[in-house]
Design a protein that fits this description.
two-stranded antiparallel sheet; 41% strand; 103 residues; Heat Shock Protein 90
Length: 103
Amino acid sequence: MFPKHSIHAASSASIKTKIYTYKGKQYVQIVGGNKKVSDKINKTLKLHAVAAAKGNAELKKMQKYYYLSSTAKTKYISGQKLSVVYEDSLYSGGVHSNEIATT
């Protein structure tokens, strides 16, 4: 018999993240761990890329040189904690783009 915390610690060590793309927009996905939990989190993490792709398509309809780009990074993963950062760049005319970070 193992103490509960030892079993939990062993299972959380196998959790990793991977970067995927949706229509050219990056998003983070959890690989490993409890499938039910990771599927729910992964669905939420993908929503940012889906929204960015939709926003980019709408901008392109207005002007072909407008854009919304999005990148994703895992900043921290340990035990039951995960920190993901999405960095977006929005250009809709003017001198430069607008940079936005979402954590």
